[in-house]
Structures are given as structure tokens and as C-alpha cells.
Amino acid sequence: MTIALGKFTKDENDLFDIMDDWLRRDRFVFVGWSGLLLFPCAYFALGGWFTGQSGWFFAPSFGVAAIFRFIRFFQGFHNWTLNPFHMMGVAGVLGAALLCAIHGATVENTLFEDGDGANTFRAFNPTQAEETYSMVTANRFWSQIFGVAFSNKRWLHFFMLFVPVTGLWMSALGVVGLALNLHAYDFVYQEIRAAEDPEFETFYTKNILLNEGIRSWMKAQD
Q1: Tell me, what's the pLDDT at 2?
Q2: Is 9 contained in some domain?
Q3: Which ranges does the record mark as transmembrane (predicted)?
Q4: How many domains does one find in the chain?
Q5: Comparing 211 with 118, which gets the higher pLDDT?
Q6: Percent of the chain with pLDDT over 70
Q7: Residues facing residue 148 across a β-bridge
Q8: N or C, which end of the chain is more exposed by having fewer CB within 10 Å?
Q9: Domain range for 168
């Protein structure tokens, strides 16, 4: 059974036709970089870290050693690696890398020569009637592998744009949240159970012990 993601092309202009025309006018630069545009906001929140943390000592400084010290502080005192926003950021960036690798390999392996001037990308040759890779072949291949395939290129490219941008937004929002000391999503019940039962051990409790070690090491260093 094959599940098609997206709408099949129509004669009339739908939402994705409008988006496609909008993206072709180079406005995709803002859409694709919107996640990166939030990082200055996140860094501004870190710049104001000393206000929320009651001291200049906790503010990020310049230099390699200072940045690594702040990363250790970020993990030791705020448990950043198990933060849901950090997890979504990692999934977004690595997922986008996987999607790009799959997409590139699929295009390269479905190429066919259309005349003497074969070109993978239509944007480089506006007079070319069709692209020189087979969307039908790629669709059939991934339908047989996963049972899921995109019905058109617009949905595919939109998804490849949506995944990394969303991941960057989530990661930046997580940094801003920690700057405001938001810890409502910590797994406190595991800490309580670990305190009551010394034999209770999970990845989270091991991470808590690691954070305690980081705090103890930083206390001795600072």
C-alpha cells in the first residue's frame, strides 16, 4: 500500500502553487534563514543572562575557553542535553541532513539525458521544457521501500525546508527559555524516585550525576 503525501497537481492555482511562485522570487531566503534570525534574539537573552542569574559571573563571555565554560555551565546547571527543545533542534538539523542526502542521492540516481544539454536543475536553463531526472521513478522507488512517497516536488521541498527551520526555532526558543529559568519540563519524578531507591537508575539519573560532577568541577575551578 502506498500513501501519497501532498496534493496532486491541478490546473488551477492552489496554495502550493502560490508558495512556489513566492519562493521563486528569492523570498525563500528569509523563510529559510528565519530560524537563524532568532539566534541573535537567543544570544541577546544570554547577554541578559546576568540579569536573570543575579550576577555578571554567569554571563557568556568572548573567547574559546569562555564559551566552553559557558557550555559546561549550561549543561551542569540547566541540563541542556535532555531539554525537549534541544532534542527537537537536533532532530531538525540531523533530520534535514538526512533528507538532503536522500534527496540528492535520489536525484543523481534517476538522471536521464534529455537532448545534448542535460541539466539537473531547471533553474539553470529556463528554456528547458522538463527536468532531467525522473520524479516518477523516484516516487515508485520510495513507495516500495517505505510505503510513503511525496506526490509532487512542492511537498518534498516544503518538507525539506520545514524540518531544519523548525528545529532551529525550537533550539533557539529553548535557549531563551533557559535564560528565563524555565524548568517546568524537567523529569522531577525520576529524581524523587532515585532519591528514595538507590538501585533505581535511568539515563536521566545518570545525567543528573554527570551534571553534579560538572557543578563540583566548576566550583573548584571558579
Answers
A1: 46
A2: no
A3: 28-50, 56-74, 86-105, 155-180
A4: 1
A5: 211
A6: 58
A7: 3
A8: N
A9: 30-114+152-186
